[in-house]
Design brief:
Blueprint lengths: L4 E2 L6 E9 L2 E9 L3 E5 L15 E2 L18 E2 L17 E7 L8 E6 L4 E9 L3 H5 L6 E6 L2 E2 L5 H9 L4 E8 L4 H5 L18 E2 L27 E5 L4 E3 L11 E5 L6 E5 L3 H29 L10 E11 L7 E8 L2 E5 L6 H4 L4 E4 L3 E8 L10 E9 L2 E9 L2 H26 L1
Parallel strand pairs: 5-8
Antiparallel strand pairs: 1-2, 2-3, 2-17, 3-4, 4-14, 6-9, 7-12, 8-9, 10-11, 10-12, 13-14, 15-16, 16-17, 18-19, 18-24, 19-20, 20-21, 22-23, 23-24
Keywords: Actin-binding, Calcium, Calmodulin-binding, Cell junction, Cytoplasm, Cytoskeleton, Membrane, Phosphoprotein, Repeat
Main location: other
GO molecular function, one term: actin binding
Length: 436
């Protein structure tokens, strides 16, 4: 069950959601603030998933009090440091019993992976130096835990193993067997480290970076500190400036509990799934509010940067992301950056990053030759009323071109409708003034 902590404005917001990585859903902790969304494979202060790992977690390190320990170990043994060739041949594929005395802070001091649901044994994936398991000098990353104090874990799920280790008491006897063939599995990074989002600064998220907590910084262009990966788990921090937040655009969502985040360069998409429809709506509303606010800042920056020449001598009136398609592409929505000037409707397939790129939109439609022909629910949709869209028709040398644009909220639909109608009227008045 997701746990949410949010203010009246919906920000900040925290809770457990699922992220789609390599066609599989993975549970992660999501933290949203006024600037960024952070996904991490860890628990957070004030947010609990009711799992007391007692120092044994799937990719994160917790102390015995269920809180992230600030006094935790700073060095971690992993499959990258415990090379298979350094493990004594005498212990390979042989059962061993190792006695571990839990510490008051840090517990066993290991992380585990695997489980019945993953068709893998319970494997030690990390050993934190200076803590109980490391002090035995008898455990290795890649050891399969066969039993805990005589309790068989050979067919245990990950959660069952966590609970067994939690209830094992202070003195723990682990029956283990080193599995050299499991090394590639424990070397795998956390799901969030596999999220593709490599975009140029300032939109580039950074693994291990904390979310920005001071949007009103005196120097917003100053780089954010990038701490190295900590034993508290991998994380992906995604700045939301000029990102596109949508529902059910690229991935089927029959249960209506997903949302999508598209990168400004339109190259990457993060799909999140919430436990139920109300929580999905809550997350979407909060993220949409953040991206809308940031888009207004971006609009002000673009206007300032193009103040002298505009875009091809055209003054920018409004911009934002919409889902778009032509009339012949009724089955394939895609993110479109729409820019409205006093003369034209400009469409970009990604956010331009230079003045030259702003001058070359994918499509340019004169407002004088453009009309708004529909605004409201999609009456032709198999789910009538679930999509809010407007349509434009533009006369060109090759005939009439019809574009469909989907808005995510009624407020967005109303805003775009008003801007386009007013823009079309204003462009006609400009021509009338010139010809009279």
């Amino acid at each position: 069950m997701a746990v949410v902590v949010a203010g009246s404005s919906g920000v900040p917001k925290s809770g457990f959601v699922e992220v789609l990585v390599r066609e599989q859903w993975h549970k992660v902790l999501a933290n949203l603030n006024e600037e960024a969304l952070t996904l991490s494979c860890e628990e957070s202060d004030g947010v609990s998933d009711n799992v007391n790992s007692n120092g044994v977690t799937n990719g994160s390190y917790l102390d015995n009090n269920n809180t992230n320990s600030n006094n935790g170990p700073q060095t971690v043994r992993t499959a990258f440091t415990d090379h298979p060739e350094r493990v004594p041949e005498a212990i390979a594929n042989r059962k061993r019993c190792v006695k571990v005395c839990k510490q008051e802070i840090g517990g066993l001091g290991i992380s585990i992976k695997g489980g019945k649901e993953n068709k893998m044994p319970i494997l030690i994936s990390k050993i934190f130096e200076g803590l109980a398991a490391d002090l035995t000098q008898a455990l290795y990353v890649g050891d399969a835990i066969l039993s805990v104090n005589g309790m068989n874990l050979r067919d245990a799920t990950h959660d069952e193993a966590v609970q067994a280790l939690k209830r094992a008491g202070k003195d723990v006897t682990l029956e283990v067997k080193y599995m050299r063939e499991a090394t590639p599995y424990v070397k795998k990074g956390s799901p969030v480290s596999d999220i593709g989002w490599e975009t140029p600064p300032p939109e580039s998220p950074r693994i291990g970076s904390p979310p920005i907590t001071s949007p009103s910084s005196s120097d917003p262009s100053s780089p954010t500190t990038q701490p190295s990966l900590s034993p508290h788990g991998d994380r992906r921090c995604i700045p939301l400036k000029m990102c596109c937040v949508t529902r059910a655009m690229t991935t089927p969502d029959p249960e209506n509990r997903q949302l999508e985040l598209h990168s400004p360069d339109a190259r990457h998409t993060v799909v999140l799934r919430c436990p139920d429809q109300p929580s999905a709506l809550s997350w979407f509303s909060a993220m949409h509010a953040v991206t809308s606010t940031l888009a207004q800042r971006a609009l002000a920056e673009v206007i300032q940067n193009t103040a002298r020449t505009g875009i091809g001598s055209r003054e920018i009136r409004h911009l934002g992301w919409l889902a778009g398609k032509t009339e012949s592409e009724k089955q394939s929505w895609r993110p479109v950056l729409v820019v409205l000037t006093e003369k034209d409707l400009l469409l970009y397939d990604s956010l331009p990053r230079s003045k030259e790129a702003w001058q070359g939109p994918e499509h340019t439609y004169p407002l004088l030759a453009t009309r708004l022909v529909h605004s409201g629910p999609d009456r032709g949709s198999p789910h009538s009323g679930t999509e809010l869209f407007f349509a434009t028709r533009t006369g060109t040398r090759l005939g009439i071109e019809t574009h469909l644009f989907r808005a995510e909220t009624t407020k967005d639909l109303s805003l775009w409708t008003r801007h386009i109608v007013n823009g079309c009227h204003a462009s006609a008045e400009m021509i009338k003034e010139v010809t009279t």
